Amino acid sequence: MDRSDKERLVSDIENQLDDFFGEDENVSRDHDADGAPAPNPLEQLKSVVLSIDWEITDECLVELEQSVDTLMDTYKDDRYTHTMLRMLNALGKYIKKRKAQAHPDAIKRVMSVFKNLEQIVSTAGMSEKRKKSIVAAEIRRFKELKERVDSKRRGRAAAAGDTTAGQRATELANEIGKAVSAATASLKKELKALRQRIKAIEKKLNI
Amino acid sequence: MAVINIKKKEVQIKIVYVGPGRGGKTTNLEYIFSKIRHRIQSDLVSIKTHGDRTLFFDFLPFALGEIKGYKIKTQLYTVPGQVKYNATRKLVLKGADGVVFVADSMEVMREKNVNSLKNLEENLAFHNIDLYSFPVVMQYNKRDLAAGGIPLLDIQTLESDLNSRLKAPSFPASAIKGDNVIRTVKKAISTTILAVQQELQ
Ligand SMILES: Nc1nc2c(ncn2[C@@H]2O[C@H](COP(=O)(O)OP(=O)(O)OP(=O)(O)O)[C@@H](O)[C@H]2O)c(=O)[nH]1
Ligand SMILES: [Mg+2]
Questions:
Q1: Which residue in A9, A12, A28, A56 has the most chain B C-beta atoms within 10 A of its own C-beta, making it the best mutation to test that interface?
Q2: ∠ CA A78-A79-A85 to the nearest 5 degrees?
Q3: Closest by Cβ to A17, choosing from B50, B106, B190
Q4: Number of domains in chain B
Q5: Is the ipTM reported for this complex over the cut 0.85?
Q6: Residue B199: pLDDT over 90
């Protein structure tokens, strides 16, 4: 393909893409260049919360505890903000303790409490009434979660009484798990051997 | 390799969105789909876990139209970014004609970006493809977070971490707002078609 052919092809492609996607698109605005954003007192907490959303590690849970601690001190005279922070604190402690067994909604609550906390802190002149209703809604959902967690715990305690059935189920699950991974391992081995054979044949056939 | 049907005058290209978990690959496809859904017949297919993470892949096929008398059919895929799903990633990359690497601009993601690129290189090598001579477009996503005071890697750092050897076309973007999402996919498609065409020569 000579140069002009290539140029023609490129312009054909570009025209087709413009037709298909449309030309009116957002261009990038690099916010780095927009000057310094207003200082955000929740900045550190926000980045911790975002990393938790992404992956829950002990490290970020410890960080969560620390930044909430600091903020609780800062906002000790602001009852609504302080209540939100206390909820975050409790959620963080619970997740850290229960790890993977933590109720999946606990993370959702962390996100939601943080989002509303941020709104309360960053909205200048928000009325006390509005703050109160936001906080009340979060408290309600927090309590709902707590009830679900408690009833799960009670369920577990009851099940623990019935040892034979519970144990048998666990044993069975372990058994199945082992069998499945053994089967997968041997399957993988077979596949590998098969692949090598195919490669050898391909080589022979020169394809 | 692109599927080319000379008789039907049809070329099918496969572009895969890769990058670290939670980087915004699925969000890219969702935005693209929202922009073109009125003009395509196909649907965006997503297979997710309850936490919204991609479990297998997302898949968005569409007919782009004709170029030089050939009907171009495009398939966009995403792979799951989570480290543990490497077998799936390898599988989805099979037969890819081009990739978009969606990097997460957050400072805390610096290492994950680099590891993910390394993983891409290995997975492509598994399919006998050399990353450095393959159509790649780089996207530095989540630039919007700077406005919320989240520490981001600057573009220069991202370029030197990820693109110094590759020298792929690159775009800062915000998939959630749609900034540069279409530009990224356009570039990926054109780069890929050109590479496929060159291979045919
Ligand atoms: N602020 C911001 N958030 C984003 C952007 N792009 C994606 N997100 C968010 O990041 C999270 C992960 O996005 P996904 O698109 O699901 O990420 P992914 O790369 O598909 O993740 P995996 O499927 O796990 O590999 C979601 O909560 C998105 O809303 C962006 O440009 N800016
Ligand atoms: Mg995804």
A1: A28
A2: 90
A3: B190
A4: 1
A5: no
A6: no
